[in-house]
Amino acid sequence: MRLLYLLGYRGLTCVCWLGLTFLTAPVAVNDVDAGSTGYHVAKKFTYGIGEAAWDYWDMLTFDPATRRLYVTHSTKVDVIDADSGKLVGEVTNTPRVHGVALVPELGKGFASNGEADTVIAFDLGTLAHIAEIKVGKDPDDIIYDPGTRRVFVANGHSDSMTAIDPATEKVIGTFPLGGQPEGFVTDRKGTLWVNLQNKNAFVTVDAKALKVKWSTPTPGCDAPASMAIDLSNRRLFIGCGGRTLAVVDAYKGNVIATLPIGEHVDNTTFDPETRLIFSSTGDGNITIVHEDSPNKYRVVDTVKTMRAAKTMTFDPKTKKIFLPTVENVPPTVSGPPQRSGPNAYKPGPFVILVVEK
Predict the structure, then answer these.
(1) What's the DSSP call for residue 336?
(2) 113 vs 47: CA distance, rounded Å
(3) CATH number for the domain whose boundaries are 57-215
(4) Residues 6 or more apart in contact with residue 218 via CB below 8 angstroms
């Protein structure tokens, strides 16, 4: 989501360098079998017109129980029926909202607000605010970890992470990461892996003790952004700058393979049933990789979407993919419209693409 430069490590506590061995020449993809999955853009839901209504979007979160999409916009979260595309409600007063985490057993959602440096807790039924929780600077990615029953939010400008008790809506603690976080996953048992985009590395976090266990460099993966995980095989799938997807052993740290993807990756998703890895990129593509084995991967498809459709969410039941963007994105732009500068443009209607087989 950001263009970042390399910085030296600073302020990193509780970090231990392991004697890990990286492959200096990651295994290359053996072959490309494009077009074999049958995935294509099947529908396009259209909402609103103009920059005033749809001037910024960031992430989508899918709730499989209610089949709702939570789509973040500049000052609100739009709640959409995933099957009909109907707008069913909104969570308001969320300044520069980035992401949404759902805690269905408590009937609560949590939205990270980058401008206010807060996380809003809201009722999943009424969509009304429950609490406003102060966290670090520019809270961004946010997830619920059922293993610890905590909500974790990455503070992009504080180089830190905050843990929240969703039952009490109180901060449990904030701890340093040693770099700018961008994309993270959980094993649902008390371990988190977090990209440090400005360090070309990721950290392994003890989610119970709230501390970094160790930091691992990612050679060949500049500016790591998105992350997904294959829990059964302990593989991390990291979307990198430079049009690369890196497959990394989550525990040993070695890079297993690198594969070509599109430009400006912002989301990577893994489906354990089909063994497919999806990476959405701002140039208007989803690259689909198949996990043949824990140590062998190949690109099997590239699905054309629309420019700036760089984030997505996945429905594990129907295998559908949902991506937000707007019409009229210039061919040189891969993100939301800016009000001024070289990437400024007048957006058309906001849309959500539905990609399916």
Answers:
(1) S
(2) 23
(3) 2.130.10.10
(4) 200, 201, 202, 224, 238, 240, 246, 248, 255
Under a CB-based contact definition with an 8 Å cutoff, are residues 15 and 319 in contact? no
Q: Tell me the residue type at 234.
A: R
Q: Which residue has the tokens 């830190």?
A: 160
Mind listing the pLDDT tens digit of every residue in the chain (357 residues)? 433 333 333 333 333 333 332 232 333 333 345 468 999 999 999 987 544 344 466 789 999 999 999 999 888 999 999 999 999 999 999 999 999 999 999 999 999 999 999 999 999 999 999 999 999 999 999 999 999 999 999 999 999 999 999 999 999 999 999 999 999 999 999 999 999 999 999 999 999 999 999 999 998 899 999 999 999 999 999 999 999 999 999 999 999 999 999 999 999 999 999 999 999 999 999 999 999 999 999 999 999 999 999 999 999 999 999 999 989 888 888 877 777 777 778 888 889 999 999
- 3-class secondary-structure state, position 68: strand
d(CA 131, CA 148): 21
Region(s) of the chain under CATH 2.130.10.10? 20-54+218-334+348-357, 57-215
* Two tokens, residue 271: 């489906």
Considering the entire predicted model, what is its pTM?
Answer: 0.88
For domain 20-54+218-334+348-357, the question of CATH label 2.60.120.560 is answered with no
